[in-house]
């Protein structure tokens, strides 16, 4: 019988059906979008739930921090994808703040495109820095995946001359899928019941065994069950218990929980299986695994993830653990003391002494960054006193005011001092008064009236141009002090004072012979 014609007829019928579907406007159903869900509650140390794996491609992110997910306090959290730490994908810029009281009642969605590799996510709210995790993305396949995964199993252990396993046997199942990726692996012992496979299965009871195994991919394809058969016989007790490994991160922390300058992680491991710990390993920020021999000190500024694990002498390896932390730069230390100066003001006689009283003003500034904490002064042989305002001295005689300042970093400026003399103000302090009509300095007539300043002394008397001055600058500063006092007393205008100071600067008074 010729079977070609029925096959052609069937093919033609299929083509006609497809054409009719196109003409009718039918379209193939769209593939469902991948959805990944994160949830949080009152805990500030970990997300309540989070995915660990996904397939590359368009993805709907669901982020819920609501009463429905266990948030009873209104605690806000963020879901933030890391875009700077080495070793992770940086192509998803996601930063969503959610709380039960926001406009979405704590449930938010976003559409992103994931690429193969690892993503790091965390909560940016201060104090929640331990809410962190990783998402591993496998390659997507735009074509429908109809091929089941490939799955195999291997039995390992010490064997006797008959091929039986002495004391125990370990079944290790591996699966791979070139399409959508492996979603899960299952196994069962002696046709009992299927259960998820997460790690090599140790069998220590004496007897005959048949272990079946199978795998399912993300497209829902399940492989045909495979099996391995073996016998376990009595032997010496074996260590099949992995070590317990823990890590503790220490260091100086700021108010946000970040480590200032450095963070030190100490890893410890113990083994109760009897064989003892063989080694501890760690991996920093996705780098190579290294043998741990001393606490790990991290001083580079930024967010870090330290993975660690331990293996015993029987070959059992503990589940990988992780410590997440952030290091920030320490503040620059202030080692510079403040700068402190003092000025003495008041009305002066021809000898430079202060008539009736003198006022000492102390100022301080700090360039080290911590700021001025305190200023102190000491009058003559008195005690050191906190300086809060200008100090007036009206007691006649010679005086010395010492002064200093300290900053908030504990630096204290070197002690300085200023000396001066206060004399009593008489009814005629200038018996040999210069009574010329105008103020004249070194032959320069300022054309400003040489008035009596109120105690028998004229402006020319107070300027005392014929007194000894070490430099011209010292003479000009003296004239500035005199004119400032007279402006305050209403004897001169500011403009007149400026004219007199300029005349002093143009004179030859104070120049060394």
UniProtKB/TrEMBL annotation:
The keyword Repeat does not apply. It holds the Pfam family Copper-bind. Residues 1-32 form the signal peptide. Residues 54-137 form the Blue (type 1) copper domain. This is OmpL47-type beta-barrel domain-containing protein. InterPro entries: BlueCu_1 (IPR000923), BlueCu_1_BS (IPR028871), Cupredoxin (IPR008972), Ig-like_fold (IPR013783), Ig-like_OmpL47-like (IPR058094), Ig_E-set (IPR014756). Keywords: Copper, Electron transport, Metal-binding, Signal, Transport. It comes from the Bacteria.
């Amino acid at each position: 019988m010729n079977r070609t014609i029925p096959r052609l007829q069937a093919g033609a019928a299929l083509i006609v059906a497809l054409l009719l579907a196109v003409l009718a406007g039918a379209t193939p159903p769209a593939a469902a979008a991948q959805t990944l869900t994160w949830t949080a509650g009152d805990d500030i140390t970990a997300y309540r739930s989070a995915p660990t794996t996904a397939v590359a491609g368009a993805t709907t992110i669901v982020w819920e921090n609501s009463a429905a997910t266990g948030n009873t306090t209104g605690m806000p959290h963020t879901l933030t994808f890391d875009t700077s730490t080495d070793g992770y994908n940086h192509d998803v810029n996601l930063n969503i703040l959610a709380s039960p009281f926001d406009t979405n009642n704590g449930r938010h969605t976003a559409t992103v495109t994931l690429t193969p590799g690892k993503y790091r996510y965390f909560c940016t709210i201060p104090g929640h820095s331990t809410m962190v995790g990783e998402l591993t993305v496998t390659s997507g396949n735009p074509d429908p995946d109809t091929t089941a995964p490939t799955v195999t199993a291997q039995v390992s252990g010490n064997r006797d001359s008959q091929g039986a396993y002495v004391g125990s046997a370990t079944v290790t199942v591996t699966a791979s899928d070139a399409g959508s990726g492996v979603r899960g692996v299952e196994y069962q012992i002696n046709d009992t019941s299927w259960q998820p496979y997460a790690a090599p299965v140790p069998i220590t009871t004496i007897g005959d065994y048949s272990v079946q195994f199978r795998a399912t991919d993300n497209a829902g394809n399940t492989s045909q069950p495979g099996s391995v058969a073996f016998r376990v016989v009595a032997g010496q007790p074996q260590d099949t218990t992995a070590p317990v490994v823990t890590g503790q991160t220490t260091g100086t922390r700021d108010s946000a929980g970040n480590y200032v300058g450095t963070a030190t992680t100490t890893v410890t491991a113990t083994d109760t299986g009897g064989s003892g710990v063989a080694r501890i390993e760690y991996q920093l920020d996705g780098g190579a695994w290294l043998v741990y021999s001393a606490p790990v000190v991290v001083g580079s500024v930024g967010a870090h993830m330290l993975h660690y694990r331990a293996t015993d002498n029987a070959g059992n390896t503990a589940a990988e653990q992780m410590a997440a932390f952030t290091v920030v730069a320490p503040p620059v230390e202030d080692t510079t003391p403040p700068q402190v100066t003092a000025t003495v003001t008041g009305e002066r006689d021809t000898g430079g002494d202060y008539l009736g009283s003198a006022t000492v003003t102390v100022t301080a500034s700090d360039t080290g960054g911590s700021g001025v904490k305190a200023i102190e002064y000491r009058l003559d042989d008195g005690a050191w006193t906190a300086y809060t305002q200008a100090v007036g001295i009206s007691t006649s005689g010679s005086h010395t005011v010492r002064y200093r300042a300290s900053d908030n970093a504990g630096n204290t400026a070197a002690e300085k001092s200023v000396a001066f003399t206060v004399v009593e103000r008489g009814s005629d302090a200038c018996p040999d008064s210069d009574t010329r009509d105008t103020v004249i300095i070194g032959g320069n007539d300022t054309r400003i009236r040489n008035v009596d300043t109120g105690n028998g002394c004229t402006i020319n008397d107070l300027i005392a141009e014929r007194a000894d001055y070490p430099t011209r600058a010292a003479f000009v500063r003296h004239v500035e002090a005199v004119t400032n006092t007279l402006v305050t007393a209403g004897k001169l205008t500011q403009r007149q004072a400026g004219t007199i100071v300029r005349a002093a600067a143009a004179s030859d008074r104070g120049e060394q012979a």
